[in-house]
Specification:
Shape: globular
Distance between the termini: 10 Å
Number of domains: 2
Bound molecules: NADP nicotinamide-adenine-dinucleotide phosphate
Helix content: 10-25%
Number of helices: 8
CATH architecture of the largest domain: Alpha-Beta Complex
Structural class: alpha/beta
Order of helices and strands: EEEHEEEHEEHHEHEHEEEEHEHE
CATH topology of the largest domain: Quinone Oxidoreductase, Chain A, domain 1
CATH superfamily of the largest domain: Medium-chain alcohol dehydrogenases, catalytic domain
């Protein structure tokens, strides 16, 4: 079978379409891949910023159809499903024609959600879900979300803009301002769309959520407030603000969270990013587009 992977680390040119044996089913659920999303972690793994054993098949997100279902798994051949693999921990990447999973980490894709869209949901959606679960009580709080226009940020914004009991400011790039002003108008949450770090008041926010990588905004948290980040490579030093509750989120496989993200998408209540589809052979082009910065929406590869 074909799989997108690397035999050495480096620039996008090290990406190859490898020819590998199909996974051994045993008691696992095998998915025939329809689409697999490209995420920043894939770029960091490919470049060597995050160490991995080689050769490696990349990818965390996948949607497709069940090719083999173990008895009692609750799935049948042909079911439409989505799944997330912790590629760095398990060495199993999603960018292959067939991928074997523990069925307990696989969920059905609701009717009406295309598989190319479903493939964009797991890593970004589950990370956002887990971050919000670990966010202190948001009632009556002043919140700053950095990077609302990103993959994870989009899921966070979709949820936070529905919460009328909090005031949520969004920090986006200047080019995203009008789109986000439009998106937040008429939504329950009060707050502004900001584009300039100079607009951010120092020590004014109860909760700062960094989904983009702006460690300087640690200073925007008021004393006894909370700072939550998902970007370990651009995170502030927690010791520099001992008066702030600091959390670095590390996403975990969780089927219930996957189901919740898929259901939210089916209700049309998720972020609805534009999905760009490229074939496996254009994986290097996909990485180049993301690496340049400024890419909006989600990019998926299809076998
Ligand atoms: N800890 C975990 O478990 C976990 C899980 C998932 C993702 N992550 C990490 O979280 C980060 C975000 O992931 P993602 O999939 O959401 O990536 P993404 O789609 O690239 O989104 C990041 C967004 O943040 C924006 N941004 C960065 N700095 C900003 C600033 N100062 N002001 C406004 N916007 C800013 C970027 O804009 P530009 O494109 O214009 O730069 C981009 O739109 C990545 O580093 C990823 O590796 C961590």
């Amino acid at each position: 079978m074909r799989a997108v992977g690397i035999t050495r680390t480096g620039g996008p040119e090290v990406l190859e379409v490898l020819d590998l044996p199909e996974p051994d089913a045993a008691d696992r659920l095998v998915i025939k891949t329809a689409a697999t999303a490209v995420n920043p972690v894939d770029l960091a793994t490919r470049s060597g910023q995050i160490p991995t054993s080689l050769p490696a098949v990349l990818g965390w997100d996948l949607a497709g159809t069940v090719a083999h279902a173990p008895a009692g798994s609750g799935f049948r051949t042909g079911d439409r499903v989505l799944a997330m693999t912790a590629q760095l921990g398990t060495g199993v990447g999603s960018m292959a024609e067939y991928v074997a999973f523990d069925p307990k980490y696989v969920a059905h894709v609701p009717d009406g959600v295309p598989l190319t869209d479903a493939a964009t949901l797991p890593l970004a959606g589950v990370t956002a879900t887990q971050l919000l679960r670990s966010t202190p009580d948001r009632h009556g709080k002043r919140i700053l979300l950095i990077g609302a226009q990103g993959g994870v940020g989009g899921h966070l914004a979709a949820r936070l803009l529905d919460e009328e009991s909090a005031r949520t400011d969004l920090l986006v790039r200047p080019a995203d301002r009008s789109a986000w002003q439009e998106r937040r108008s008429g939504r329950p949450a009060d707050g502004a769309v900001l584009t300039d770090l100079a607009q951010i008041e120092s020590r004014a926010y109860d909760i700062v959520i960094d989904a983009g990588g702006a460690p300087d905004l640690f200073e925007a948290v008021r004393p006894q407030g909370a700072f939550l980040t998902i970007t370990p490579f651009s995170a502030p030093d927690p010791a520099s603000r001992p008066d702030v509750a600091y959390t670095l989120i590390s996403v975990e496989l969780d089927r219930d969270d996957l189901v919740s993200v898929a259901d939210t998408a089916a209700r049309g209540a998720g972020p609805r990013p534009e999905t760009t589809v490229l074939p496996f052979e254009e994986a290097a082009e996909a990485h180049r587009r993301l690496e340049r910065g400024g890419f909006r929406g989600k990019l998926v590869l299809v076998p």
